[in-house]
Amino acid sequence: MTALSAVPRLRRGVKTAYDETRDSHVVLFPEGVLVLNETAAAVVGLCDGRTSVEGIAHRLAEDFDGVRADDVAELVTRLVARRVVDVDG
Amino acid sequence: MADAPFGLLAELTHRCPLRCGYCSNPVELAGRADELDTGQWRAVFDQARALGVLQVHLSGGEPLARKDLPALVGHASGLGCYVNLVTSGLGLTADRLAELEGVDHVQLSVQDADAAGANLIAGVKAFEHKLKAADVIRDAGLPLTVNVVLHRLNLDHVGEIIALAARMGADRLELANTQYYGWALRNRAALLPTREQLARAGEVVAAAKARSSMEIVYVIADYHEAHPKPCMHGWGARQLTVAPNGDVLPCPAAGVIEGLGIENVKDRALADIWHSSPAFNAFRGFDWMKEPCRTCARRELDFGGCRCQAFQLTGDASATDPVCSLSPHRGAVDLILAGAPAAVEHRAVVR
């Protein structure tokens, strides 16, 4: 699992967009599309290469109830496995 | 109603400077005069985006053979699509790539690990151009996938091919064993690897995956497998193909299935074709399946395999993919595997 101090960023060639057809945020990358729910979209939006996993959890807690840093770390781990984000640290 | 597609494979042209014997283009190639024009392709992209397409794969043939490629890239990108350029790299200079503003990712084909082997299968001297093209792509800061079709003639070099892709600066490497459609089907006897070749290559690839920073995608050789591939993740489920002449296909090879009722974007709206054409509805879901697929637990995993392969090898597009060990036609595949190798015949030149 990704460390809470790790700093995720979108990989080269990865784009985020809003898809009107599906009313969802999406991640576009070579040979793939991820359709995101609202929380996942907020996490991806904060994978900016500056904010740590813990920092992302703090930011999310301002807008969403019940955000746990471990849940953010687990999502980031899944995004790393899909080659959507890289983590530093 | 079917879910919206995510991807459009836009086969802009069948013209290509390469003559690879494994080409998946149909044996009956469309000429330049048959191709959709710029305005027609723009309309295809507009309709595809409205339908839900988010990824546009600009392919061919060689998409750079289209003089209007910059306009087509710009249009697809402007619609918010992720634009993937699938190219041989021939003609891809720094100036040419600079004109293609809006490309998000480039897939560059490589035929073998060295010039002699690569030029042999491509039918032209292309190898050095590809090394230059990789430099150009990397210098432009674009993510690069190297695509390699594997077969009897290059499978023993897969380790060297992986090393070459790393030297070229690839982010991803797709190693796809030949799938037998179009020209590849015609050249099957020349291209089919031995089981021993596949076993050795599988080990080399697994070891490389464990240590490489590249993402390595390995597509298996389905004739040698016990179960079929989950072709297209289900018919008419995620992606559609528009051929150079505007024919709309559930998969690039679907033109081989006789009586499918393929429709053309010049005659009917893309969304109507996706949702209600006989061709797209023929094999959606599970109701079309016969035994052994109909009651098989694996049907949710492999969707009965490939419809085109079923048609090509059994004459019945609704049969179980004959590579499946449960298919009553598996013997036909084993017979093919037991056949003697032949020489490669290069694909035709199309103008």
Short description:
The complex is a heterodimer of chains A (89) and B (351). Chain A has three helices and five strands.
Order of helices and strands of chain B: EHEHEHEHHEHEHHHEEEEHHHHH
- CA-atom Rg of chain A in angstroms: 12 Å
Helix content of chain B: 25-40%
- In round numbers, the mean pLDDT of chain B is 96
Describe the structure.
- The complex is a heterodimer of chains A (89) and B (351).
- Chain A has 89 residues and is α+β, with helices and mostly antiparallel strands.
- Chain A has 3 helices and 5 strands, in the order E-E-E-E-H-H-H-E.
- In chain A, the strands form 2 sheets. A 3-stranded antiparallel beta sheet of chain A has the order 2-3-4. A two-stranded antiparallel sheet of chain A has the order 1-5.
- In chain A, a hairpin with a 2-residue loop joins strand 3 and strand 4 (32-36).
- The longest helix of chain A is centred in the C-terminal third of the chain and has 13 residues, at 69-81.
- Chain B is α/β, with parallel strands linked by helices and 351 residues long.
- In chain B, 34% of the residues lie in helices and 14% in strands.
- Chain B has helices at residues 38-51, 69-78, 94-99, 115-122, 127-139, 158-167, 182-186, 188-191, 195-211, 270-276, 278-281, 299-302, 307-314, 330-337, and strands at 7-11, 55-59, 82-87, 105-109, 144-150, 172-177, 215-219, 239-242, 247-249, 263-264.
- Chain B has a 10-stranded mixed beta sheet.
- In chain B, strand 2, helix 2 (69-78) and strand 3 (82-87) form a beta-alpha-beta unit.
- In chain B, helix 1 (38-51) packs parallel to helix 2 (69-78).
- The mean pLDDT of chain B is 96.
- Classes of the chains: A alpha+beta (89), B alpha/beta (351).
- At the A-B interface, strand 2 and strand 3 of A face loops of B.
